[in-house]
């Protein structure tokens, strides 16, 4: 015969069904979908090659697993930009103080403004339990290599220079001088990408789904 306690538990369970916990379920789902290798991923490649398209697809297909590193800059926010989302906006003196304190994994100067990726930002984003992606140009890759940060490196390449030129012109936002500068820079980046040991993987973006499949496979591969 059931005891009083057993009858009480049975009644409570029958009258009070367990409620689903969507937030907890989503958290466990995200953890299950995280890559086995949690090191930051440095994505580089010429302007117009489709880097952003690839990692935005990754973010959409694996929600709550990745964060794009938010860089520091000394330029003013543009309309529609948000602090801490698009950039961390700081003064020139604050930026230079971070340089003096060795606070950046990489930094550069463009058009009179400074841009950089801080060590603290990467650590904060990693602490959230997500894998951090850094969209970095060639000089930044060199600096990150020199600072000794443990990361994975993937280079996105165009099928050929003609295809890259067509993509740049297809944007409809580039003046001729800008197109030529970007193409010259692309030649340097492609040449640097051939340096042995610089990148863990080079992906040719000649077909979006094919390139994405290779990109996703690289991101989710097990540590060596």
UniProtKB/TrEMBL annotation:
Family: Belongs to the guanylate kinase family.
Molecular function, one GO term: ATP binding
SUPFAM superfamilies per record: P-loop containing nucleoside triphosphate hydrolases
SMART domains documented for this protein: GuKc
PROSITE patterns, per database record: GUANYLATE_KINASE_1, GUANYLATE_KINASE_2
Enzyme class, first EC level, given as a word: transferase
Organism, scientific name: Sarocladium strictum
Classification via NCBIfam families: guanyl_kin (TIGR03263)
One Gene Ontology cellular component: cytosol
Name of this chain's protein: Guanylate kinase
